[in-house]
From TrEMBL:
Record organism: Sphingobacterium anhuiense
Any coiled-coil regions, as ranges: none
Family recorded in the similarity comment: In the C-terminal section; belongs to the trehalose phosphatase family.
Signal sequence region: none
UniProt-recorded name of the protein: Bifunctional alpha,alpha-trehalose-phosphate synthase (UDP-forming)/trehalose-phosphatase
Residues shown, of full length: 1 to 475 of 754
Length: 475
C-alpha cells in the first residue's frame, strides 16, 4: 500500500551551503523551523524543498549539491542572481516584509520584482511537480516568500492536502490593501486547505482582507471559494524546549556562564539578540538604555547592555542604513557615558554558536525584546527555556506575537522610551522570589507548547480538514 509522503516547502532549506576555500560546506540550521520539522522530513520518504543559499558555479557543482542534499531528504531549488534580486531582496524583503510589519512607507513597488516573485513561485511549483507527488501526499508551505505557491500546487493536484503557515504578522486589511498585487497574493494563499498564523489578530486581518478585498464569504474562521472550504487558524509556534534546557544545564555551558558572570562581576547583564532588522526596535532599545543612564546615573558601571545583532539581508538598502544608525548610536552612548573601567554596551555584529548563546541566556539578568512588530519572536522563549536554574527577567514588547502567551513577562511598548527605561529599572530591582515566580509560569508555557506540539497540532488539523472536505464532497 502507498505510504503517503509529507512535502515541506520553504524559501530556505534547513541546511545552508557555503563555499569556503573552494570547498562546499553543508551547514545545518539551528533555527526553530529546522528543529521542529526535523523529525518529519528526515523520516520515511518525506522531503523538504527549498533554496540552498548558494548559486552553483556550474552544472557539476549543482550536481554535487543536489546529491549531498538528497542524503538528508532535501531537494534544492536553485535561484539565479537575477531571481534572488527580484524575488527575495526585491518583492519579499522590500514589499512584503515592510508592509506586513506595518512599514508601508519602506515598500518599493517595482513591477519587474513582482514578475520575478511570480516566476520563482512557479519555479518552486515545478520542483514540487518533479517529485512524483500523489494525491494522497500532503504539502506544507512556509512563509511570505511563497504566497502564490499553494494555488500553483492546487492546480496540479486538485484534492491534495495543502497547509500554509505564515511566520510573520499579517497586517490589517487597510495596510495590506496598499500592495498593488494584493488580490493575486490572497488568491495564491487560498489554494491551501489550512492557513496558520501565530496570533488571533493575524487570522482576523487575513479573513478581513479576504472579505473586504476579494468579497469572499467568511463564516467564523472558514472561507468558501471555488467550491472549497478553507480554514484559517492560530498556531503559536514554540521552540525545542528540551534542547535549550538541557544545554543550559550542561557542565560546559554552566562553566562558560560562570566565566561571563565573572567578567562582568559587578554588572547586571541586559541581553538582546536579533537579526539586523528595522522591525526589531534596536534603535528604540538603545534610546531607552541611554535614557536609563541619564535618569539613574548611579547605574553607571553597574549594568551592561550585551547586544548581539546577527547580520541579515545586508544587500537591502534599509538594512544597510539601519546598520549605520546602530553603529553611530552605540558609538555615541559608549563615548558619552563610558569611562576607563566601564563600557556601557558590548555590541557584536556577528552570528554566535548555539552554545555561546545558551551561556549568555544563563548568565543574563534581563532579556530585552523591543520588537516594533514580530510574528512570534523565539529568542524570548529560548531565554525562558534556559532559566530553570538561574534567575532573570524577561522584558517583552507587546507587539511581538509571544506577548500573547508570555503574560508574566514585563510588557512594554517599545515606542514609549520612558516606559522601557522604567521596565529595565524595575527588572534590575525585582526581588528574586518574584523573578522565580514569573519565570516558572513562563517555563510551563514554553515547555508545554513546544515546537513538536506545534507541528503535531498543525498536521492533525490538516488531516481532519481533509477528511471533512472529503465527506463534504461525498454528500
Ligand atoms: C524570518 C522569516 C523567515 C526567514 C528568516 C531569516 O524569521 O519569517 O522566513 O527565513 O526571517 O531571514 P532570511 O531573509 O535570511 O531568510
Amino acid at each position: 500500500m502507498y505510504k503517503k509522503r509529507t512535502i515541506i516547502v520553504s524559501n530556505r532549506l534547513p541546511i545552508r551551503i557555503e563555499r569556503k576555500d573552494n570547498e562546499l560546506q553543508f551547514i545545518p540550521s539551528e533555527g526553530g523551523l529546522a528543529t521542529g520539522l526535523g523529525s518529519v522530513y528526515k523520516s520515511d520518504e518525506n522531503i523538504w524543498i527549498g533554496w540552498p543559499g548558494i548559486i552553483p558555479l556550474n552544472t557539476q557543482e549543482e550536481e554535487i549539491i543536489t546529491q549531498g542534499l538528497a542524503e538528508h531528504n532535501l531537494i534544492p531549488v536553485f535561484l539565479t542572481e537575477e531571481e534572488l534580486k527580484g524575488y527575495y531582496e526585491g518583492f519579499s524583503n522590500e514589499v512584503l516584509w515592510p508592509v506586513f510589519h506595518y512599514r508601508p512607507s519602506y515598500a518599493v513597488y517595482r513591477t519587474p520584482d513582482w514578475e520575478m516573485y511570480q516566476q520563482v513561485n512557479a519555479k518552486f511549483s515545478q520542483v514540487v511537480d518533479q517529485q512524483n507527488v500523489q494525491e494522497k501526499d500532503e504539502v506544507w508551505i512556509h512563509d511570505y516568500q511563497l504566497m502564490l505557491l499553494p494555488q500553483l500546487v492546487r492546480k496540479s493536484y486538485p484534492t491534495i492536502a495543502i497547509g500554509f503557515f505564515q511566520h510573520i504578522p499579517f497586517p490589517n486589511d487597510e495596510v495590506f490593501r496598499s500592495i498593488p498585487w494584493r488580490n493575486e497574493l490572497l488568491n495564491g494563499l487560498l489554494g491551501a486547505d489550512l492557513i496558520g498564523f501565530h496570533t488571533f489578530n493575524d487570522t482576523q486581518h487575513f479573513l478581513n482582507s479576504c472579505a473586504h478585498i476579494l468579497g469572499l464569504n467568511v463564516q467564523n474562521n472558514c472561507l468558501h471559494t471555488d467550491g472549497r472550504s478553507i480554514f484559517t487558524e492560530v498556531y503559536p509556534m514554540g521552540i525545542d524546549f528540551d534542547k535549550f534546557s538541557q544545554l543550559a544545564n550542561s557542565e560546559p555551558i554552566q562553566t562558560r556562564a560562570h566565566s561571563i558572570k565573572d567578567y562582568y562581576k559587578d554588572q547586571k547583564i541586559i541581553l538582546s539578540i536579533d537579526r539586523l532588522d528595522y522591525s526589531k526596535g534596536i534603535i528604540e532599545r538603545l534610546l531607552a538604555y541611554e535614557n536609563l543612564l541619564v535618569k539613574y546615573p548611579e547605574l553607571k558601571g553597574q549594568v551592561v547592555l550585551y547586544m548581539i545583532v546577527v547580520p541579515s539581508r545586508d544587500h537591502v538598502a534599509q538594512y544597510k542604513q539601519l546598520l549605520d544608525e546602530i553603529d553611530r548610536t552605540v558609538g555615541h552612548i559608549n563615548a558619552v557615558f563610558g569611562n576607563n573601567e566601564w563600557t556601557p554596551i558590548a555590541y557584536f555584529y556577528n552570528s554566535f554558536p548555539l552554545e555561546e548563546l545558551s551561556a549568555l541566556y544563563v548568565s543574563a539578568d534581563i532579556c530585552l525584546i523591543t520588537s516594533l512588530r514580530d510574528g512570534m519572536n523565539l529568542v524570548c522563549k529560548e531565554y525562558i527555556a534556559s532559566k530553570e536554574n538561574t534567575d532573570g527577567v524577561l522584558i517583552l514588547s507587546e507587539l511581538a506575537g509571544a506577548a500573547k502567551e508570555l503574560t508574566q513577562a514585563i510588557h512594554i511598548n517599545p515606542n514609549a522610551t520612558d516606559q522601557v527605561t522604567e521596565a529595565i529599572y524595575k527588572a534590575l530591582k525585582m526581588p528574586v522570589a518574584e523573578q522565580r515566580m514569573r519565570l516558572n509560569d513562563s517555563i510551563e508555557i514554553v515547555k508545554k507548547f513546544n515546537v513538536r506540539h506545534w507541528v503535531r497540532l498543525f498536521f492533525s488539523r490538516l488531516r481532519e480538514i481533509k477528511l471533512f472536505q472529503q465527506n463534504e464532497m461525498a454528500r
